[in-house]
Automatic annotation (TrEMBL):
Designated gene of the protein: C1galt1c1
InterPro entries noted in UniProt: C1GALT1/C1GALT1_chp1 (IPR026050)
GO terms assigned for molecular function: glycoprotein-N-acetylgalactosamine 3-beta-galactosyltransferase activity
Protein name in the entry: C1GALT1-specific chaperone 1
Membrane topology: Single-pass type II membrane protein
GO cellular component, one term: membrane
Amino acid sequence: MISEGSSFIKGMLLGGLFCAVVTLLGNFSTGHQSTTDHHHHHIQVPSKEELLKLPEPKRIELSQSIRVYCAILVQPRELSYWAAVKETWSKHCDKAEFYSPENVKVFHSVNLDTKDKWLMLRNALKHAYANGKGYSWYFVALPSTFAIIENLKFFLLNKDPGQPFYIGHTVKSGELEYAELEGGLVLSVEALRRLVGVFSDSVKCPEQGSVLWKLTEEKELAVCLKYTGVFAENAEDSEGKEIFNTKSVNTLIKEALAEKPQEVVNGCCSDVAITFHGQSPNHMQVLMYGVYRLRPYGHTFHDSLVFLPPVDSDND
């Protein structure tokens, strides 16, 4: 009886110790021990009044200084999406690079030689930083996302890439806030510099993530950035509407019809939306037509600046 009781007590002690270790590792692995007190930010687009206060030469200088490197994460089975992105919005990036888990003969891409999504994202960002010198912003997207790069540049106009920005459509998981990859996300060159630096720290930012559970690649990214003092920030227009959309245009319109049938347009989408996710290849072509090609004759939009396409670009 004594030995049985002793074994029971030992089991209880070992079980309690194991739970304590799991709890400690869990807190450590999600990066919640950061000493920086950070409050969630909502970043808005610059106002027209703010831009008009600037002299025209300054506005031109600003519009030419924003250079966006687009990193598009693709899969071999997504060739139709890949082709659609290549033929549509990616032409408006100052540089667009496609990253795939293996060599694909049909289209040029950077072969990351891994199917692990976190390693793909991690290695794509390392490659972008090493080979994308001279760019101030790095935009990461999936091939089922449609992006309006000019609106992204407009949004970034009054933001200093020398400061650590990590922006997109943010959500919260426990104590961790992160930008959803489906809506696309953008990093300033300073944020990416810090991120690449922490990649070498296998404790704060391990290649394989947590040993106890698997986080998504977007959460792994947020954890690593959090260790460098960079936190996810939500992007909105001046009315508080989302501009990095994790849903398609069709879905947003259907939701607006159901919830606000009297004001579908105002209830649906921002006038300066940057992304829409879940678009089929055909829908991307339709969006390209509506965004870039269809124009009412004789109507001017009175924009206070112009974003010119990259040199030798064949974009719309």
